[in-house]
Write a structure and sequence with these properties.
Layout lengths: L9 H20 L4 H19 L12 H15 L5 H16 L1 H21 L4 H79 L4 H28 L11 H9 L7 E7 L7 H20 L5 E8 L3 E8 L16 H11 L3 E6 L5 E8 L20
Parallel strand pairs: 1-2
Antiparallel strand pairs: 2-3, 3-5, 4-5
Helix pairs in contact: 1-4, 2-3, 3-4, 4-5, 4-6, 5-6, 6-7, 8-9, 9-10
Length: about 400
């Protein structure tokens, strides 16, 4: 509402101060009585004071201010202005459009034009002169209200875009939960089913075949350990982007460290000068590293994984290499699932590219390249490259 009001259009703000200075300068260059000069100065102070608190959005607490600002600008014509104040009056009409709507602003404008015609005739001017002056003001009014309408339309579209963005993020979260739910069902659900069947067999064998019963118990115990390890992996996967206040490479390094004790030897390095990234880019990088580490642990029989985050001039690249089985050397060939395809879609939405496949020196490589700044250029890829393996 005050000096730093973000809703006040910059162009209108500039025009106001330019016209105000022109009005004051025009008054000072013309001879005037002392009384009129004092009234004019008071009038200018009132206009400036109202301008500083003039609302530019529907605000129930301050809706009356445009209704005071408009007559204050009109009064400048009575206290010493010679026509330049009319542009300030049009700006007041624009404020009414922002607060009350375009229909109210058009009605106020029509009344103001009628007032100009009537006032001109009162000063013994001809109807032609009155209509000419009203026509000039009307042309400027059309321009001001057109600009106001464009700003209001842009605000509406921006609000719709923000709402759509929030909806997209909600759907992305829902998709991620669905993916993780399916993965958990396939992994932990399978383990629990095996445990249940083994314990049922142990109960059935406990009297007639006690050795077989104890064998079933031992197998159930082993499967329970596998299920527990799987559950711990999912707990790691559910950790948020900011870990104890960490973002950027610090969050990725912490994620790599969290896989200690799983049998993987994970190393991580950063190349180039690190700088802040867009939050959405950080989240995708985090998910890519998460997917690469989890897949290496679950499918590739890898013992070592290396992550490298490289900051380029306008791109940031994350590469995860493991020394496990690639597709051509015994890894899961053509395995389904939608972890990597989902990440590819999210990467492409940020105008980046995700590739996955066998590394040249053996093992598997997952690579994500994304814009390094908050802006985004044209798409540089279309998701997973042909022949990429989804594990």
């Amino acid at each position: 509402m005050w000096l730093g009001d973000p809703d006040r259009p910059t162009l209108i703000n500039v025009v106001f101060w330019v016209v105000l200075l022109a009005t004051v300068g025009d008054h000072m260059l013309r001879p005037a009585k002392t009384l009129y000069s004092v009234l004019f100065a008071i009038n200018i102070a009132v206009v400036v004071g109202l301008w500083l608190v003039l609302p530019w959005r529907p605000a129930p607490r301050y809706r009356f201010i445009p209704l005071l600002f408009l007559p204050a600008t009109i009064a400048l014509g009575l206290t010493g202005s010679y026509g330049t104040h009319l542009l300030l009056t049009l700006i007041g009409t624009a404020s009414i459009a922002f607060v009350y709507g375009m229909r109210t602003a058009v009605a106020v404008l029509a009344g103001m034009l009628a007032f100009i015609v009537a006032g001109t005739l009162l000063f013994d001017r001809t109807m032609q002169e009155a209509l000419l002056q009203a026509g000039v003001v009307g042309v400027f009014a059309i321009f001001v209200l057109g600009m106001t309408s464009a700003i209001l339309e842009a605000r509406l579209r921006r609000a719709e875009a923000q709402a759509l963005l929030e909806r997209v993020r909600e759907l992305a979260v829902a998709e991620e939960r669905a993916r993780m739910g399916a993965e958990m069902h396939d992994s932990i659900g399978h383990h629990l089913t095996v445990i249940k069947v083994g314990l049922e067999n142990a109960e059935r064998y406990r009297e007639r075949r006690p050795d077989a019963a104890w064998q079933e118990v031992r197998q159930a115990k082993e499967v329970t350990a596998e299920a527990l390890a799987d559950a711990r992996r999912w707990v790691r996967a559910l950790r948020p982007l900011a870990l104890d206040g960490r973002v950027g490479s610090a969050a990725l390094e912490q994620l790599a460290v969290s896989f200690d004790g799983t049998g993987l030897s994970v190393t991580f390095e950063v190349e180039g000068r690190e700088r802040p990234l867009d939050p959405d880019v950080e989240l995708v990088l985090y998910r890519v590293l998460q997917e690469g580490l989890t897949n290496a642990l679950r499918h590739s029989e890898a013992r070592q994984v290396h992550g490298r985050l490289t900051f380029g001039e306008d791109r940031v690249t994350l590469v995860i290499n493991d020394d496990g089985k690639g597709r051509k050397t015994g890894g899961r060939d053509g395995a389904g699932g939608f972890g990597l395809p989902s990440l590819a879609e999210r990467t492409r939405a940020l105008r980046g590219v995700l590739t996955a496949g066998d590394a040249e020196g053996g093992g598997f490589e997952l690579r994500a390249e994304l814009p390094a700044g908050t802006g985004a250029g044209p798409p540089i890829g279309a998701g997973l490259r042909p022949g990429a393996e989804v594990r």
